[in-house]
């Protein structure tokens, strides 16, 4: 099953990533100034995957990627893939596991294990 992972960027903004069952990042969200906005969009996206559009693109260097669009707004951009088939596999994984994905929040960088 896939997972949404909320984390903090070096700039101080928040983001969420959708990772596959194997732990690979499939897509990354835009930047959010507030953590609660980031969490809310991750929850929202999880609930509307069936109505999202996945728009495919090809870079000038021949790599493939897609954007996750809902209600005319780009929510996230995928990682780069070497083939169009791999892009479709990434989209298929999102459609299959996205609505059941759990949300993990690592934005605080609180470590369980002490030094």
UniProtKB/TrEMBL annotation:
InterPro entries: DUF1508 (IPR010879), YegP-like_sf (IPR036913). It comes from the Bacteria. Residues 60-105 form the DUF1508 domain. Pfam families: DUF1508. SUPFAM superfamilies: YegP-like. Gene3D superfamilies: 2.30.29.80. This is DUF1508 domain-containing protein. It comes from Flavobacterium flevense.
